[in-house]
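Minutes, project huddle
Topic: does the predicted pose make sense with flavin-adenine dinucleotide bound?
PN asked that the exact inputs be recorded in the minutes so nobody has to dig through chat later. Recorded below.
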Amino acid sequence: MDGAMQEDWVENARMIVDSARAIVPADGSLDRVRRLRAKGAGFERDVMAQAGALGLFLMRVGEEAGGLGLGLRETCELARVLGGGLVPEPILSTILAGRLLQGALPETVAAGEAVMLTAWQDAPRSLDWQGGLGGGRLSGRKVAIPGAEGADLFAVTTAAGVAVVPADAPGLTVTAEPTLDGGRLGTVAFDGVEAELLPCPDIGAAIGEAGLVHCAYLLGLSERALAITLDYLRVREQFGRPIGSFQALQHRATEMKIEVELARAAIFATARRLDTGTGGDAARRGIARCRLRASSSTMRVVREAIQMHGAMGITDEADIGLFVCKAMVETGFFGGAALQRRILSDLLDQGDAA
Amino acid sequence: MSTDYNAMSDADFRAMVRAFVEAEYPADLPRYALHRLHWSEVKPWYLRLSARGWICPTWPRAYGGMELTAGKHLIYIDEMERHGCARVNDIGPVMLGPLLIKHGTEAQRARFLPRILSGEDIWAQGYSEPGAGSDLAAVRCEAVRDGDDWVITGQKTWTTLGMDANWIFILARTDKTVKKQAGISFLLVPMDAPGVTIRPILNLERDAEFCEVFFDAVRVPADHIVGAVNDGWTIAKALLGHERVFIGAPRLSASALARLRLQARAGGIWHDPAFRDRYVTLACEVEDLADLFETYVDALRDGRPIGADVAMLKICQSELYQRISDLGLEIAAETAGLGEPPDGDIRLHAAATWLSARPTTIFGGSTEVLRNMLAKAVLDLPS
Ligand SMILES: Cc1cc2nc3c(=O)[nH]c(=O)nc-3n(C[C@H](O)[C@H](O)[C@H](O)COP(=O)(O)OP(=O)(O)OC[C@H]3O[C@@H](n4cnc5c(N)ncnc54)[C@H](O)[C@@H]3O)c2cc1C
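Predicted holo structure (tokens), as shared on screen:
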């Protein structure tokens, strides 16, 4: 890759991250996140509007289609910032809708005036997205959609393309269950919903990319949870010393750091490969590896974070708990670890596999 | 005097406990609950056990207990587990009772034991403080002698179900001039005494399972001390001996494994070879733990002393419990973070199991502190 391109993405990412600071408080405050728990759909429309105004929903829309045409690295940097702030708004879901719909992403959605979420997943523990059609209409269901009750529109993936449907379309029902992070995880059911299907040549690839971007959200979450834990190790004293001076904890904190760095390296290297032309099985393999790494590192960090906080770690009032709960809710998204292992083992004997 | 249960065969005893539990466990009480229930919920069950004379399985019969041997006690626990009986507010039966029987005065035993047996008194354990967790001997909550009273000022925290208790026993600083372990006394304090306030603490499931307890010049009579002045540390430590064996019992891991199996069946992955590989590994570990546990039970049965090495059992059990719960969370994938159990079946709720497994490596001696202790006391490694 030439130097100019390299600098391009770094500069773009810096701008995106700077603009995301409008959403993620610079002082790290989690007051808003706390306040939003168990309220309504689990997110604020105002913040979605802000994200729209910042152009975030156009990141993955090509320039020729009126978007920003940014790469996965920039999108991952954004997701990382959102994860560090535990931002509950389904911004990544709308970015995926933009990626799928390109120029057909409604202007109101791009501007953040209407909330569009992507409904792609046919069932838990799978990456199947082709369902949802029956007799030329939408039928069946799509699962695991955070914030679904707050959507005005859904971008629904099917074997025949992507349908854009209003949330109040006849025959469409949204249900949701509360999650431990104070959010709500939705299912959208379709009973013969009329919809126009827009062609999209690479839905599977787009969903794979979204899975990678979500890894970066988990990365941001783990980095911040690690930082909070390290701070605690520095200030909490027992036996007349900071507990961070005990070698037993120092070694484990180091392990946490190594895990996080491996996740960061894997995610951004994979994003770079995808940005620079890698596709097909190699892309699928890279993404599955990142999902495995991101889920194992995230869970390790939050497990250790609880342990190192002692009883404080299992309280609602300590911020670290917000990270623990979010990790429990989101680590298994995009199919969960068992599915990633299956994908990787299926690809073992394929082509250039290692 | 009451029945000599130890004279029964194990099989008869088991059948008797099972029949009682099946007949008497209140139908409206949750079964297999992972969170602690409050006194308002479990009271009927406590009272039924109490009425049967079974609320204090380990106490001597002379004091109203069942005086079960270690083997019989395990059967008792086993049958409660099997039915999924909720844990009652058991600090009185499990901790304070045995402690008073060993270190209390006859007057204290006469006053407090019957009220534990009847459920009139519910006790809480007030050891930890904000500044004294792993370093428990650093307690600062202070008791000063004033005439015939102790005057207590300070704070306790992480007091499990403290809001349900009408009494709390505390470790209080009674001498600041000596080595920290040597200046601590064991005191009994009524929660309704003037100057006691509590603040509930929410846990990650946003339940108030524990609380902070504040003491502002709280007066208790001089005879509310157990053991000698400044002897509290020794007394509190002695209590850990036999109880540690039971904390290390494999039942939490075994029941987590059973739940994992149910979850895998419900999720359609029970026959998945990759899952089985990991399940079998964990299942073997549970059996190994059970065998290790047996060696300690044998020692108890034969009346041999339990050494510091029993901490290994607690480490194994709590960490295994956590690893089993980690796999449960992992296979739940997208549904791992749901706040409510799938299909209303608590046993399928991976998140609840995962969360309930977390504190087991923190309380009762954190795994780090126990490892430090084992390295010195058992492995004889240098400081
Ligand atoms: C669910 C729950 C219920 C509880 N109920 C009660 C109760 O009813 N009554 C009561 O009195 N207490 C109760 N406790 C408190 C419990 O006893 C303490 O949490 C425990 O002693 C640890 O103290 P801490 O939480 O302050 O952690 P800390 O002591 O601050 O420890 C923080 C971390 O540092 C580690 N650490 C500390 N010292 C060392 C060292 N020397 N070397 C290496 N690592 C070290 C610890 O292992 C831990 O990982 C409860 C706790 C929990 C979680």
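Observations noted during the meeting:
- Chain B touches chain A through 47 residues (CB under 8 Å).
- Residues A 236, 238-239, 243, 246, 248-249, 307-308, 310-311, 314; B 125-128, 133-134, 158-160, 210, 359, 362-363, 366, 368-369, 372 surround flavin-adenine dinucleotide (CB under 6 Å).
No decisions taken; revisit at the next huddle.
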